[in-house]
Amino acid sequence: MDKQPIVTKRIYESPSKNDGYRVLVDRLWPRGVSKKDVQLDKWAKEIAPSDELRKWFDHDPEKFHEFKICYKQELEDHSDKLSELINRSSEQKVTLLYGAKDQEHNQAVVLKDVLKNKRET
After folding, report:
1. Which residues are within 8 A (CB) of 75 and not within 5 positions of it... i.e. 6 or more apart?
2. How far apart are CA 109 and CA 105, in angstroms?
3. Bridge partners of 43?
4. What is the pLDDT of residues 37-55, one digit of tens each?
5. Quick one: pLDDT band at residue 2, thresholds 50, 70, 90?
6. What are residue 37's DSSP bridge partners?
């Protein structure tokens, strides 16, 4: 099984033909983004962090380590949805879209690592 890249990208960046399968991984729709302009293949809000976790984290980089642990625990309940994305990544590049301003401390970064690790096993 060939492995295509799994990458992250802010939803505010323009869509590209090189994005492959575009998946929004935010629970809430990003402000100021038109649903018709984002060229989305899927909105996977069910694998986004829970409202409780999202509100607690509040994009605070100092909470990111604990956020990662909690979010990975939440993802364990969604192995079917993760398998879907892993299978998709054998066929084409998967771009995980997120709305956060911080490109290093967000759920898409965590999800990307989880998907890559599961794909390796």
Report:
1. 47, 82, 111, 114
2. 7
3. 24
4. 899 999 999 999 999 999 9
5. low
6. none
5/48 Cα distance (integer angstroms):
20
Tokens of 116: 């890559």
Helices (H), the chain: 51-57, 64-75, 79-91, 107-120
Q: β-pairing, 94-98 with 42-43? A: unpaired
Which letter, b or e, does each residue of 98-112 get, where b requires 16 or more Cβ atoms within 10 Å of its Cβ? bbbeeeebbbbbbbb
Closest CA to 116 of 97, 80, 90: 90
- Tell me phi and psi for residue 49, to 5 degrees: -55, 145
Which amino acid does the sequence have at 106? N
Angle between helices 107-120 and 64-75 (to 10 degrees): 50
